[in-house]
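@channel sequence for tomorrow's demo:
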Amino acid sequence: MTNDTSLTPEQRDRLLESYRTLADLSGTCRVPAVGAALRGALAELRVALDGQAVELDDYYQEGGHRAAAIARAA
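structure tokens (generated this afternoon):
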């Protein structure tokens, strides 16, 4: 589903930071149910950001190779 609205730069930055936080938690959480929920949230957020032409791989090349690997696995 697409629409004609776009994220503001502030919204984009906040969502990217949220993605990084979720990815960090996913990589360290030892509770299986929580880890699964985090991976699901990451996948949903990645789809939404992709729909807004936000390139997560480019974002994480600057400082989060682990987060990029998690993002690709989600």
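heads up for whoever presents: Confidence is low (pLDDT under 50) at residues 62-68, 70-74.
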